[in-house]
Every structure is written in structure tokens, then in C-alpha cells.
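USER: Fancy drafting a protein?

ASSISTANT:
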Amino acid sequence: MKPLLTLMLALLYSFPLYAVESITVQGLFSGKVLIEIDGKSRLMREGERSAEGVLLIYADSHYAEIELEGVRQKLTMGATISSQFAAASRQEVTIPRGADGMYRIGGAINGRGVEFMVDTGATSLAMNSQLAKRLGIDYRKKGRKGLTETASAVVVVYQVNLDKVEVGSISLHNVEAVVLEGAQPSVVLLGLSFLKRIELTQAGNILKLRK
């Protein structure tokens, strides 16, 4: 029995045990990510695994995909995962205020990378028609046409439903949005059609989104 017990213990301790409390994305680059793991910052490259067991699978200027203990997660700039990675019951995204006073963060619409700006004054998530075309959204065929008044003019808009919207580790399905004809807004406005479905808190220059 002793040789068998020794073998079982050897097999048990040959596999690393990880206990990561928090992961925060601090910088996104092509093929690399600046990431903070349990308070320690490090620059990781695709295919690299940290001492804590975090594997960087993919990274670009919009998001990073990491893996820990067989669980994969896509994170955008400022995104934070708290508590046990594999068993986290809630998703949280931290967004620092920019120099212009706005809260901006990378994310994805229907799996394609975009830049969001949080706008609690916007009823719906909003984007310009040029971006909608690049994202493959057939707003003229599938959307409901209408008019809206902006600060400078009355513009044609189309109301659509987006299959999936991702902001950091938070993802929502069937999100109402509007597409404005033209080049404005220059970034995607993250309006109440998304924000009202999550928890939003602000402390100083930090905005936190929780689901």
C-alpha cells in the first residue's frame, strides 16, 4: 500500500494549485497585455503563462483572452475579475475617468471589437452608420426607421437589436441600439439600454459596472 500511496501523492503534487484573487487589465497591445495579478503588474505575451497560472491566449488593442484552470475569459481595458476566477458569481468591470472627463473602454458588438463611451444620458446604445456597416449590421433592412434631433440637426436613425454586447467580462444579449446615419457619434455610446440591465456605481474617478 505504501508504494501506491506514495505514487498517488506524487501525482497530486505534480499538478500546480492556483489561487488567484484578482486580475486587472492595465494595458492592451497587439500580442501582449499589461496585467495585474493579485497586486503584481507584469507584461505578458501570447502563449505565456504567469507564475500564478494565468495563460494569455490572445491580445490586441481591444481585448485580451486569458485562461486559468481551464476557464477562459475575455477582458477589455480596465476590466477586473475579483475573487476566485473559476467560480466568480458576478462580473465586474472597472473604468477609470479619462483626461477628457469621459469613461471609455474597449469591448465588442457581435464579436467584433469597438470602443465604448459610457453615456447615461443616452436612452439606447448608439453608433454611426459607417461603423454599423463595418460590423455587418443590416440596419436598413432589419431596423425600424425614425428621426431624432441632435445638437446640430435632425438625423435619420434606425432602431435595431444587437445579438451580443461585451464590455470587459460583462456580456448581454439582445441589446436595443440605434444607428445614426452619418459619421457621428465617433465612438459607440453605451446608453441605458445596456446600463439599466447591470449595476452601475461611481467612486471618485472610477466607474464600476457589475452584473
